[in-house]
Design a protein that fits this description.
The complex is a heterodimer of chains A (about 120) and B (about 110). Chain A has about 120 residues and is mostly beta strands. Chain A has no helices and 11 strands. By secondary structure, chain B is mainly beta. The chains are: A mainly beta (about 120), B mainly beta (about 110).
């Protein structure tokens, strides 16, 4: 059964770049499916950030597109999220996920934007 | 603003049947499968229903999903206190090439 695990700094300063990595086990990213990032601000709903096809094609939420980059490292079987120029509004639990018939999600990691 | 529309809250008494609706458009629900998630405070969303009406192993058959046109619904029968949680619908959107979510429905068991 595929497993996903997010990792990265839990605290980022305003105007800096948030960087997270999703390590995937028990399935090769290059084998197929879309892989993506979703976030949930404290007390709020779920927001899709962006997704990447296993070939490397990416699609981003229009509201975040100018600040987001999703990339893949097939040698490590992991994919990454970079969100630039962060503000307090970017404080959220960030989840990575495999968009498959039965979606699989990581446990999530809280990122707080604060000086 | 969420692309999928859900009621913000729902409630029922133990043993009752409750349904939660999810309305979308032709680019998401109308042309793709719907998934439903259950989320308890402080935990990651869990897949409750996938591909409109399929239950992952371990999900009780009290939970069922359906889809018609550009709408979907989640039904919970034999409501139990442990069903108190937030429920989200989600679907792939062909216009965005991404996932769209409802804003979530908070279910209370009275």
């Amino acid at each position: 059964q595929v497993q996903l695990q997010e990792s990265g700094p839990g605290l980022v300063k305003p105007s800096e770049t948030l960087s997270l990595t999703c390590a995937v086990s028990a399935y090769s990213i290059s084998s197929g499916y879309y892989w993506g990032w979703i976030r949930q601000p404290p007390g709020k709903g779920l927001e899709w950030i962006g997704s990447m096809f296993h070939s490397g094609i990416t699609h981003y939420n229009p509201s975040l597109k100018s600040r987001v980059i999703i990339s893949v490292d097939t040698s490590k079987n992991q994919f990454s999220l970079k969100l630039s120029s962060v503000t307090a509004a970017d404080t959220a639990v960030y989840y990575c996920a495999r968009h498959s018939d039965i979606p699989s999600w990581g446990q999530g990691t809280l990122v707080t934007v604060s000086s | 603003q969420s692309v999928l529309t859900q009621p913000p809250s729902a409630s029922g008494t133990p043993g009752q049947r409750v349904t939660i609706s999810c309305s979308g458009s032709s680019s998401n629900i109308g042309s793709n499968n719907v998934n439903w998630y259950q989320q308890f405070p402080g935990t990651a969303p869990k897949v409750l229903i996938y591909s409109n009406d399929q239950r992952p192993s371990g999900v009780p058959d009290r939970f069922s999903g359906s889809k018609s046109g550009t709408s979907a619904s989640l039904a919970i029968s034999g409501l139990q206190s442990e069903d108190e949680a937030d429920y989200y619908c989600a679907a792939w959107d062909d216009s965005l090439n991404g996932v769209v979510f409802g804003r979530g429905t908070k279910l209370s068991v009275l």
